[in-house]
């Protein structure tokens, strides 16, 4: 095993103390209870660290290793105790590793924490970060786990458990709904041929399931089916794949008509059960399928199998309840529901159904309590309609109670309510009978809600048994529950189903997994699959919808090492997640339409006390299970509270320090440096980075301190008004724009001052010039001016969805024009209406306070239209050369002109064609370069701008909203920014105005009117620009995002072509060059030492910089190209680390060299600080 961390054997303290302690004795427990270790044992322990996590059980002597580890832990602990904690920091790190390997997570966390607090450069220790990440992962503290894992790969890209990390990152990003990142990491895991706790078919399964989660059902189906073709597919994987396919066919409308779908679903599930007859979940799904096609007996049998095969599940019991209810067996239904809520007292659907059942038996008091519980449930979606129902019943009850003392008006009210009640019963009766006859298609409208079912049931009950009363509410008679659930055995007898076995959650069966499973009710909910290291047999897929939910979304999977603790957190995670994703409601498959799939947990203060008592009484019934649950929760809370104060990662100082302000080493001669490197890099091909000064992983800056006072949060936008051409070329304008104090500058009237012909970019001219030119289209919702609402208009969100498609300039022009015409027409109509009924206006505006937004109109935004082709756009591009040099697309003072190749949209012009509301979501420019944007008109644009040093705050907001700051589309909530003391510049850009976005400035833009814009990037030759570009380059690397500007390539070109007189800028460039020089040299030496041939492959003119085909990092000088692509001259480039992952000894690769070492050295040596010129270049 490669050594990439601190090893125990090398820590002196251990040896010394060990000797003292052991005092010459052989390994044994001393009489006083202290422990000692033999030299052999110490040697063994030296090789054990976090990297072994998940692999120990695979060792032939796994058990012996565990015994050794326990002993080592005792030994360490006693040493630490003796030394009163004054031991070397590595000690704690090792103790953390040992506890991690023993799966004692709380102890592992605390040991790692102590190491972190003692060791300031802990970030250099990849095994520590990895171990810490694993602990966070175990606790489902995904935010921190992601950070720790990303940092491992940043400090050591060749880390031997990179595959394990990518797999876990994939899983966590999936839960966080960052699907793009998730897919990227799963793919990175898949190409890696190192050992891993999941097999590649299992990783492929996760990719297929990721598609399913994203509702890309055709992709998912294809991927699943492809998996089934795999030779020697393990039975468990096969069973799970078939299970997913079955459930997907049952749920998803895309996959054919209902009859076909259901028959496929049943076939798949039956095949799945052939592969794994013991899957309770497959049986449960099968039951749902049978139930939905009216095969009641088969459904009962399947549910029974499900209960026999697996742990009791609230979902299953709830489904059984539904079936009983459909059979007009209210007592049995009651008992089944009670089982469900006993197993999961947050099971909103079960509470709801129980409520309807009580209501049907004219026990509104009990019903109300159940409904209240339902609204507090985890996955209660229709809280508001439920609240309405509760109010209705409460009112009815109140009036009934005071029947004899009502005034006439109240009596009338009571009559009305009663008749309403009866009416609903009748309405439902129809709906229900249609279901009973087996036709599912005609369902009662959803809006009637829970009441529907209950009335039918009530009718049924009355038919059967006259006025039967159900046992009163379990909320008040909690103690009765145990009896009832055991009683089920007999009452269920009619169906010949013995339900006793699981009816009472008993023994050591934990409640927790059940609860967590129910988290799966969320649209993106999770399913628990235990143990990465336990392989697939525990990949349990869970239904996303509870029994009487609409079958809406696919199950989701989460892998976790600890079913127990993770369960509680997964619940939280998915709750959080789901809030951001209002579910797409699809039709329900049972006639019981009492609940659906979204969840808003509303524990309002007024209802809280009842909520608690209710919860308690239910908890009381399951005390053993609940103790487990409680403990876990406490543990978690401890963890969370400690997260706030002293969990390692948080206490880190933030602020990227990628370029240390060092000035000595870069002045030493490069030959000396390289000589030193040569001596260091002798031992084969080990990670080159070890020999270099490591840089700490980049981190986003914390919010600037002290916070700005509230009255400074809407600063005036720096604006400059130009009168004439001379103003435009006045040098201080350049200085003003690039001054880091001005995040944005609006240059008003620029086009007029320079007499630019903006008409060249008008829609009319564009159509005449190139009507077939490609336009990328973003379909967006037309939102209120500065707000961003979810599609239903219920709440403000950060995520802003837009679908991408393509069209032509001609077609978009047509759309733009017709949109304008339509708006004129609407305006006229409005004006007419306004005249007619201006009286009514005041009344209608009364609603505005609580009015829901939406539904929103969709609009199309024509974006990223490429104007790089100077033949097609000659006139247009020529017109832009009239601009002052510092804003020109091409100029000597523009870093992007020194790349030697094109980066579309950065050093070329892009055009935007807009209708009102067209939005460019929040972002910083690629690699923090500056940007120039001119509004062509005729309409205006509105801009929102936040200074660079607040990007960390916005990054936090994105994370909180499960968005990727770099990759997702988001639209900030201005109120939240105000609360967080983030200043926002806000201004209107009129036609002819140029907006200069300074380096790193965060901004978002929307069109007020119909207009076109042109934009490109610029890189002023300043220390600030270079620093921010390099920082973002490193942050992108950490985040696995491609840097569009190849900063290494650019730095060398700068050294060749530019005279730098700013000492700060010079030092930074020189330092970067030195680092790269050292890396190239070390890697070169290592390859040669390992006998790998390096083939000269010089560069052609304008050859772009290279990126790794797998991980997208920039690859400079030494390119790892697959043999195949080399012989085909297609040159598929890999970075060293990715090459090694696919081919450990690099046999499948040739190494191409693009620069002579002497040349690089020469460039480095000749790059010197230029004497400063008083005024900077144009
Ligand atoms: Zn790579």
Automatic annotation (TrEMBL):
<dbReference type="Pfam" id="PF02373">
    <property type="entry name" value="JmjC"/>
</dbReference>
<keyword id="KW-0560">Oxidoreductase</keyword>
<keyword id="KW-0223">Dioxygenase</keyword>
<dbReference type="Pfam" id="PF21326">
    <property type="entry name" value="KDM6_GATAL"/>
</dbReference>
<feature type="repeat" description="TPR">
    <location>
        <begin position="314"/>
        <end position="347"/>
    </location>
</feature>
<keyword id="KW-0479">Metal-binding</keyword>
<keyword id="KW-0539">Nucleus</keyword>
<dbReference type="GO" id="GO:0010468">
    <property type="term" value="P:regulation of gene expression"/>
</dbReference>
<dbReference type="InterPro" id="IPR051630">
    <property type="entry name" value="Corepressor-Demethylase"/>
</dbReference>
<dbReference type="InterPro" id="IPR011990">
    <property type="entry name" value="TPR-like_helical_dom_sf"/>
</dbReference>
<dbReference type="InterPro" id="IPR048562">
    <property type="entry name" value="KDM6A_B-like_C-hel"/>
</dbReference>
<feature type="region of interest" description="Disordered">
    <location>
        <begin position="694"/>
        <end position="713"/>
    </location>
</feature>
<dbReference type="Pfam" id="PF21322">
    <property type="entry name" value="KDM6_C-hel"/>
</dbReference>
<dbReference type="GO" id="GO:0044666">
    <property type="term" value="C:MLL3/4 complex"/>
</dbReference>
<dbReference type="InterPro" id="IPR003347">
    <property type="entry name" value="JmjC_dom"/>
</dbReference>
<feature type="compositionally biased region" description="Low complexity">
    <location>
        <begin position="593"/>
        <end position="611"/>
    </location>
</feature>
<keyword id="KW-0156">Chromatin regulator</keyword>
<feature type="compositionally biased region" description="Pro residues">
    <location>
        <begin position="695"/>
        <end position="708"/>
    </location>
</feature>
<keyword id="KW-0862">Zinc</keyword>
<dbReference type="GO" id="GO:0007507">
    <property type="term" value="P:heart development"/>
</dbReference>
<keyword id="KW-0597">Phosphoprotein</keyword>
<feature type="domain" description="JmjC">
    <location>
        <begin position="872"/>
        <end position="1035"/>
    </location>
</feature>
<feature type="compositionally biased region" description="Basic and acidic residues">
    <location>
        <begin position="825"/>
        <end position="838"/>
    </location>
</feature>
<comment type="similarity">
    <text>Belongs to the UTX family.</text>
</comment>
<dbReference type="GO" id="GO:0046872">
    <property type="term" value="F:metal ion binding"/>
</dbReference>
<dbReference type="InterPro" id="IPR019734">
    <property type="entry name" value="TPR_rpt"/>
</dbReference>
<dbReference type="GO" id="GO:0071558">
    <property type="term" value="F:histone H3K27me2/H3K27me3 demethylase activity"/>
</dbReference>
<keyword id="KW-0408">Iron</keyword>
<feature type="region of interest" description="Disordered">
    <location>
        <begin position="825"/>
        <end position="851"/>
    </location>
</feature>
<keyword id="KW-0802">TPR repeat</keyword>
<feature type="region of interest" description="Disordered">
    <location>
        <begin position="575"/>
        <end position="611"/>
    </location>
</feature>
<dbReference type="GO" id="GO:0031490">
    <property type="term" value="F:chromatin DNA binding"/>
</dbReference>
<feature type="repeat" description="TPR">
    <location>
        <begin position="126"/>
        <end position="159"/>
    </location>
</feature>
<dbReference type="GO" id="GO:0000978">
    <property type="term" value="F:RNA polymerase II cis-regulatory region sequence-specific DNA binding"/>
</dbReference>
<dbReference type="Pfam" id="PF13181">
    <property type="entry name" value="TPR_8"/>
</dbReference>
<keyword id="KW-0677">Repeat</keyword>
<dbReference type="InterPro" id="IPR046941">
    <property type="entry name" value="KDM6_GATAL_sf"/>
</dbReference>
<protein>
    <recommendedName>
        <fullName>[histone H3]-trimethyl-L-lysine(27) demethylase</fullName>
        <ecNumber>1.14.11.68</ecNumber>
    </recommendedName>
</protein>
<dbReference type="InterPro" id="IPR048560">
    <property type="entry name" value="KDM6A_B-like_GATAL"/>
</dbReference>
């Amino acid at each position: 095993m490669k050594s990439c961390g601190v090893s125990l054997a090398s820590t002196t303290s251990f040896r010394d103390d060990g000797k003292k302690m052991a005092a010459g004795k052989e390994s044994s427990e001393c009489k006083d209870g202290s422990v000692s270790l033999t030299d052999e044992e110490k040697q063994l322990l030296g090789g054990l660290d976090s990297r072994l996590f998940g692999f120990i059980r695979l060792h032939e002597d796994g058990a012996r290793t565990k015994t050794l580890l326990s002993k080592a832990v005792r030994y360490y602990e006693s040493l630490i105790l003796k030394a009163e904690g004054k031991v070397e920091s590595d000690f704690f790190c090792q103790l953390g590793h040992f506890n991690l390997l023993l799966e004692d997570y709380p102890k592992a966390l605390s040991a790692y924490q102590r190491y972190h607090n003692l060791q300031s450069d802990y970030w250099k220790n990849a095994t520590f970060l990895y171990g810490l990440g694993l602990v966070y992962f175990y606790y489902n503290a995904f935010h921190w786990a992601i950070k720790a894992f990303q940092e491992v790969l940043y400090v050591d890209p060749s880390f031997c458990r990179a595959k394990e990390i990518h797999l876990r990152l994939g899983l966590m990003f999936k839960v966080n709904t960052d699907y793009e990142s998730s897919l990227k990491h799963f793919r990175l895991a898949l190409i890696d041929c190192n050992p891993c706790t999941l097999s590649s078919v299992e990783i492929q399964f996760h990719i297929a399931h990721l598609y399913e989660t994203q509702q890309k059902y055709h992709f998912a189906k294809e991927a699943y089916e492809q998996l089934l073709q795999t030779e020697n597919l393990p039975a468990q994987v096969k069973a799970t794949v078939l299970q997913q396919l079955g459930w997907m066919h049952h749920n998803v409308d895309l996959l054919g008509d209902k009859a076909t779908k259901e028959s496929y679903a049943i076939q798949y599930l039956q095949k799945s059960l052939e592969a794994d007859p013991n899957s309770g979940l497959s049986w449960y799904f099968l039951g749902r399928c049978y139930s939905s096609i009216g095969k009641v007996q088969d459904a009962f049998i399947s549910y029974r199998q499900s209960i026999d095969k697996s742990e009791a599940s609230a979902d299953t019991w709830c489904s059984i309840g539904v079936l009983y209810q459909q059979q007009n067996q209210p007592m049995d239904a009651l008992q089944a529901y009670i089982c469900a809520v006993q197993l999961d007292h947050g099971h909103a659907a079960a509470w709801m159904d129980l409520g309807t059942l009580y209501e049907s038996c004219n026990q509104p008091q009990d019903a109300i309590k159940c409904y209240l519980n339902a609204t507090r449930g985890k996955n209660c979606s229709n809280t508001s309609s439920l609240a309405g129902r509760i109010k209705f019943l409460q009112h009815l009850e109140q009036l009934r109670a005071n029947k004899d003392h009502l005034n006439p008006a109240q009596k009338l009210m009571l009559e009305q309510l009663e008749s309403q009640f009866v009416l609903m019963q009748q309405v439902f009766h129809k709906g229900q009978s249609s279901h009973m006859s087996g036709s599912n298609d005609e369902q009662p409208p959803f809006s009637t809600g829970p009441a529907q079912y209950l009335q039918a049931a009530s009718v049924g009950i009355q038919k059967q048994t006259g006025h039967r009363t159900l046992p009163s509410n379990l909320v008040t008679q909690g103690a009765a529950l145990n009896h009832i659930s055991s009683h089920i055995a007999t009452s269920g007898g009619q169906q010949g189903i013995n339900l006793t076995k699981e009816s009472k959650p008993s023994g050591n069966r934990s409640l927790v997994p059940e609860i967590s499973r129910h988290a799966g009710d969320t649209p993106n909910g999770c399913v628990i699959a235990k143990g990465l290291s336990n392989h697939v047999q525990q990949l349990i897929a869970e239904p996303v919808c509870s029994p009487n939910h609409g079958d809406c979304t696919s199950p989701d999977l989460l892998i976790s090492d600890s079913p127990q603790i993770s369960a509680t957190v997964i619940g939280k995670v998915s709750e959080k997640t789901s809030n951001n994703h209002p579910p797409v409601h699809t039709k329900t498959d049972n006639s019981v339409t009492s609940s659906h799939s979204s969840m808003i947990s509303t524990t309002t203060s007024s209802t809280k006390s009842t909520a608690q008592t209710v919860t308690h009484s239910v908890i009381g019934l399951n005390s053993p299970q609940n103790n487990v649950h409680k403990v876990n929760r406490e543990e978690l809370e401890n963890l969370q509270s400690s997260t706030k104060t002293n969990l390692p990662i948080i206490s880190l100082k933030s602020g990227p320090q990628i370029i240390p302000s060092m000035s000595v080493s870069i002045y030493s001669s490069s030959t000396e440096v390289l000589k030193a490197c040569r001596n260091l890099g002798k031992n084969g091909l080990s990670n080159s980075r070890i020999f270099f000064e490591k840089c700490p992983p980049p981190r986003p800056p914390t919010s600037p301190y002290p916070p700005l006072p509230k009255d400074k949060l809407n600063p005036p936008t720096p604006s400059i008004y130009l009168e004439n051409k001379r103003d435009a070329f006045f040098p201080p304008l350049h200085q003003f724009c690039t001054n880091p104090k001005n995040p944005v500058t609006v240059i008003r009237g620029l086009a007029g001052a320079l007499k630019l012909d903006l008409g060249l970019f008008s829609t009319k001219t564009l159509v005449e010039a190139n009507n077939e030119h490609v336009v990328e289209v973003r379909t967006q919702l037309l939102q209120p001016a500065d707000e961003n609402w979810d599609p239903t208009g219920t709440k403000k969100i950060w995520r802003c969805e837009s679908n991408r498609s393509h069209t032509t300039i001609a077609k978009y022009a047509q759309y733009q024009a017709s949109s304008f015409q339509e708006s004129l027409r609407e305006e006229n109509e409005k004006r007419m209406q306004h005249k007619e009924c201006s009286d009514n206006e005041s009344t209608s505006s009364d609603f505005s306070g609580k009015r829901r937004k939406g539904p929103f109109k969709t609009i199309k935004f024509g974006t990223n239209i490429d104007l790089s082709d100077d033949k097609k756009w000659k006139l247009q591009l020529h017109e832009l050369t009239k601009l002052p040099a510092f804003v020109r697309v091409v100029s000597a003072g523009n870093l992007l002109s020194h790349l030697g190749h094109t980066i579309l949209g950065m050093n070329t012009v892009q055009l935007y064609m807009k209708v009102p509301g067209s939005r460019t979501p929040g972002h910083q420019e690629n690699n923090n370069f500056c940007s120039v944007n001119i509004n062509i008109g005729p309409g205006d644009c509105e801009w929102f701008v936040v200074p660079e040093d607040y990007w960390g705050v916005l990054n936090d907001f994105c994370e909180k909203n499960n968005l990727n700051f770099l990759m997702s589309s988001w639209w900030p909530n201005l109120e939240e920014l105000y609360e967080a003391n983030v200043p926002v510049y806000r201004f209107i850009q009129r036609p002819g105005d140029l907006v200069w976005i300074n380096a790193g400035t965060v901004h978002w833009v929307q069109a007020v009117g119909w207009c076109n814009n042109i934009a490109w990037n610029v890189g002023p030759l300043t220390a600030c620009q270079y620093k921010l570009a390099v920082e973002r380059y490193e942050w992108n690397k950490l985040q696995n995002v491609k840097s569009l500007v190849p900063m290494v390539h650019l730095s060398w070109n700068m050294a060749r072509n530019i005279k730098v007189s700013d000492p700060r800028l010079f030092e930074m460039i020189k330092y970067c060059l030195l680092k790269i020089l050292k890396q190239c040299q070390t890697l070169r030496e290592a390859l040669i030492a390992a006998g790998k041939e390096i083939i000269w492959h010089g560069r052609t003119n304008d050859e772009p910089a290279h990126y790794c085909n797998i991980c997208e990092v920039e690859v400079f000088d030494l390119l790892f190209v697959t043999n195949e692509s080399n012989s085909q001259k297609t040159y598929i480039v890999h970075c060293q680390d990715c090459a090694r992952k696919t081919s450990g000894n690099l046999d499948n690769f040739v190494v191409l060299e693009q620069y002579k070492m002497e040349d690089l050295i020469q460039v480095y040596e000749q790059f010197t600080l230029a004497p400063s010129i008083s005024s900077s270049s144009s």
